[in-house]
Design goal:
The complex is a heterodimer of chains A (293) and B (465).
Chain A lengths: L1 H8 L7 H18 L4 H8 L2 H4 L2 H18 L2 H5 L1 H15 L9 H29 L1 H11 L14 H26 L7 E2 L2 E2 H8 L15 H4 L5 H7 L17 H5 L26 H5 L3
Antiparallel strand pairs in A: 1-2
Chain B lengths: L1 H27 L26 H17 L4 H9 L23 H4 L22 H14 L4 E2 L4 E2 H22 L23 H13 L10 H8 L4 H4 L16 H10 L6 H19 L6 H45 L5 H21 L8 H10 L9 E6 L5 E5 L3 H19 L10 H10 L9
Antiparallel strand pairs in B: 1-2, 3-4
Helix pairs in contact in B: 2-3, 2-6, 2-7, 5-6, 6-7, 6-13, 7-11, 8-10, 10-12, 11-12, 12-13, 12-15, 14-15
Classes of the chains: A mainly alpha (293), B mainly alpha (465).
Chain lengths: 293, 465
């Protein structure tokens, strides 16, 4: 249970209470000042029991809960990342000369934080794309897309196997970045952090990442949506409309989608139905989510 | 009423408890100084007042440290004299008086007229070229050292001063202690405790066996009264006051100086992560206290098991001290390689860095050879260690010594890349951790990386995009 609550108390997690509050503020100002919605509508939208207690949302909660136990099984794999990092570090010796001159610490921090951010984001995009494109992986990722209501908690509506794949991805990326950067910068390697999390991650979450899984249609200018994925763009990714299928795989950066010709920008008054192409009520049962129909 | 009950019940209980503590503490009390243990042989009629004697071992330490100085002078006759000669007037070249650190003895004979050759491990040394035995390796190195300028051969990056010194510390001191005195000589039918070690001796068989093993470790007799830092300062001849335990104004090489592996143990322990020095000397002390308590009779089975238990503590910790040294010098060799590569890339003069590389590699190799002469079959660990280090440091042009020809000249072959050999040094460090559980880990090349993985490594997450 402590792990469960850690989701809300750890600034490295998207559901950190501070990010939920900032998302609520952003949503409020967006709906009130940009979309000119009446206050009463905004309030009822926020506290709509039809959303929070829908079958879809309840399925989110169940999976969230179950995944806590599956993630526990990953502990030995996490321990293995030291071996993988050492492997990367050792093999760097065969490819490059280890520098002895030291670079200023602030520059090392900036390089490491940026490299980790870019590679981490790319790998998320790439794995996400594979989850859609490879039929076997889609069987697992479908559990996430079967959500018909999007709430911030939908971020944890993840099939356990997918959670394992996400964690493995993180291990590979961290091992690679740490092994390579330690080779070049030795003990100066460190992360620019705010509240113990990468500065880029904190900025992304503080600027309303939680609205990606919501019904708040917050889009950016078209040019910006080709660089950063807006909440509205991610909502398009969850659309049941076939013309929206397999688009906007990106996590933070949209440039990968742009390069991969899968970037769709949002529309001002888009009305999107969330879910699968052939959605059934049964898709929200735990059995269907985990074992499939 | 209450007070009466208190005095009738609590006071006697307290007395019983206090006596129990006193009795138990006295029976487990450990002596502080390895000296003045009484003569336990009832029929001893000589003039000695103590049964402790290990002068021959300290003479060998003085021979080894003097030899280290001689190698850099290139006089092969002098080297051989200190290694295998029998002149009691051989001067103690090191440790020599330095400022107020006055050394009591000036000749080997003042300690005991011994040599090193008779006690050098006679088995095969697989980590060195040419299928040689221990004494053959020493003789070969003497010849090479005499040919090289100051005991240093830059063409092959061999530092014979370090190679011979560290090898002898293993092949003589470590081997004699752990593979002889603390091994077969602890058996019941060898040097029994109810007879003198030899006719007329003031000590029993087992007492002397134990003392000789203690001497080979090289610790001052009053080690347990000092910190590891103090013992380190004594070895470095920095603190005469703490060395001079009997206040005679001189440091006695017999029992007040720190030598050999005891010095290395202190160097690791002063970092605060390990207690090799005190664990080893403490076990020697416990064993000697046991022999005093046995009081000149034959050891019972359980007493001998107890003594063997102390011996095992000594062996295990001593082996770790050598493994820590291998770890440290693999790390320093790695650091030298980073520096050399940078100097070469900038077109600078590499001579000084190359000298350090040879020195640190020499210590690495010497300790690695030492690790393998403890009489224990190290199996695959030995093979891995020797292959990773090779017969020489990696030389410019990525070659390495791979053997000797019929004239005893080194043969070189293509070997690893520079980076590849650096990885070998990392793997040597890993091997010491995995096989010997080293803890001090001086010059650890991947400690920072482990810390980074701990603090910045990936954590499990089910967060979807």
């Amino acid at each position: 249970m402590t792990d469960f609550f850690a989701n809300f108390l750890n600034p490295e997690k998207r559901l950190f209470i501070g990010y939920l509050i900032s998302a609520a503020f952003i949503a409020f100002f967006w709906l009130r000042l940009v979309q000119k919605k009446p206050l009463v509508n905004i309030a009822s939208g926020f506290f709509n029991s039809k959303v929070w207690f829908s079958k879809s949302a309840i399925a989110d909660y169940k999976l969230m809960f179950i995944n806590q136990f599956f993630l526990k099984l990953l502990t030995p794999i996490l321990i293995g990342q030291l071996a993988l990092t050492l492997f990367v570090f050792e093999n760097m010796h065969l490819l490059f000369t280890r520098p002895s001159a030291s670079i200023p610490v602030w520059l090392v921090m900036l390089i490491f934080t940026s490299v980790l951010f870019v590679i981490d984001d790319f790998s998320r995009y790439f794995l996400h794309r594979l989850m859609h494109r490879i039929p076997l992986l889609w069987k697992f990722h479908k559990a996430h897309h079967s959500a018909t209501n999007l709430t911030p908690l939908t971020v944890l509506r993840t099939h356990p196997i997918e959670a394992v794949l996400f964690s493995l991805r993180a291990i590979v990326v961290h091992s690679l970045c740490l092994g390579v950067c330690f080779f070049f910068f030795a003990n100066n390697v460190s992360l620019i952090e705010i509240f113990g999390a990468s500065v880029f991650v904190v900025i992304f979450h503080a600027l309303g990442s939680n609205l990606r899984h919501s019904h708040v249609n917050l889009g950016y200018w078209d040019w910006l949506e080709k660089i950063f994925v807006s909440p509205a763009q991610h909502q398009i990714h969850h659309s049941t409309n076939p013309k929206h299928f397999d688009c906007n795989f990106g996590a933070i950066l949209a440039i990968w989608d742009n390069i991969g010709s899968s970037c769709i920008v949002s529309e001002k008054n888009q009305h999107i139905k969330f879910g699968l192409k052939e959605q059934s009520e049964k898709d929200h049962t735990l059995k269907n989510l985990i074992i499939g129909s | 009423m209450f007070n009466q009950r208190l005095t009738t019940k609590v006071v006697p209980l307290a007395v019983v408890f206090a006596s129990a503590v006193l009795i138990s503490s006295s029976s487990f009390a450990r002596s502080n100084v390895y000296a003045d243990f009484p003569i336990t042989l009832s029929d001893y009629s000589g003039s000695a007042t103590t049964s402790v004697s290990y002068k021959g071992q300290m003479a060998r330490h003085a021979l080894e440290s003097s030899l280290k100085k001689l190698i850099s002078k290139g006089d092969i006759a002098a080297m051989q004299s200190y290694y295998s000669g029998d002149d009691a007037n051989r001067a103690i070249i090191a440790p020599a008086t330095k400022g107020d650190f006055v050394i009591k003895q000036s000749t080997i004979g003042e300690l005991s007229n011994k040599n090193l050759s008779g006690k050098t491990y006679k088995g095969l040394i697989p980590g060195w070229v040419g299928n040689m035995t221990g004494p053959e390796v020493v003789a070969f190195m003497f010849e090479k050292a005499a040919d090289a300028d100051g005991g240093y051969d830059p063409a092959h990056a061999f530092d014979y001063t370090q190679l011979v010194s560290k090898f002898l510390m293993g092949a003589v001191m470590y081997n004699q202690a752990v593979d002889n005195y603390l091994d077969e000589k602890l058996e019941a039918d060898t040097k029994p405790n109810n007879k003198p070690y030899k006719d007329g001796a003031a000590y029993t068989g087992k007492e002397h066996v134990w003392d000789e093993a203690f001497g080979y470790f090289g610790a001052p007799a009053h080690t347990l009264t000092m910190s590891a830092q103090d013992v380190y300062n004594i070895a470095k001849q920095k603190d005469a006051a703490i060395a001079d335990y009997n206040y005679d104004g001189k440091v006695d090489l017999y029992n007040e100086m720190a030598f050999g592996h005891a010095y290395y143990a202190s160097s690791f322990d002063k970092g605060g992560k390990t207690t090799y020095l005190h664990d080893i000397v403490g076990a020697y002390m416990d064993g000697r206290d046991l022999l005093v308590a046995v009081n000149g009779r034959a050891l019972s089975g359980s007493e001998r098991d107890q003594l063997k238990g102390y011996a095992q503590t000594i062996k295990t910790n001593w082996e770790k001290v050598i493994a820590e040294a291998v770890f440290k010098y693999a790390g320093e060799t790695y650091e030298d390689m980073v520096k050399i590569e940078a100097i070469l890339e900038s077109g600078g003069d590499v001579a000084k860095a190359w000298r350090n590389y040879a020195k640190h590699w020499g210590e690495l190799k010497g300790f690695a050879l030492a690790l393998q002469v403890g009489g224990k079959d190290m199996g695959a660990t030995s093979v891995k260690l020797n292959r990773l280090i090779g017969y020489s440091p990696l030389l410019l042009g990525n070659t390495q010594v791979t053997g000797i020809d019929s004239n005893g000249e080194y043969v070189q072959s293509d070997a690893e890349t520079w980076g590849g050999y650096m990885v070998h040094m990392l793997k040597v460090q890993n091997l010491m951790v995995d096989e010997f559980g080293v803890v001090a880990k001086s010059h650890d090349q991947t400690a920072g990386l482990s810390e980074l993985v701990k603090s910045l490594g990936a954590k499990s997450s089910a967060e979807n995009d």
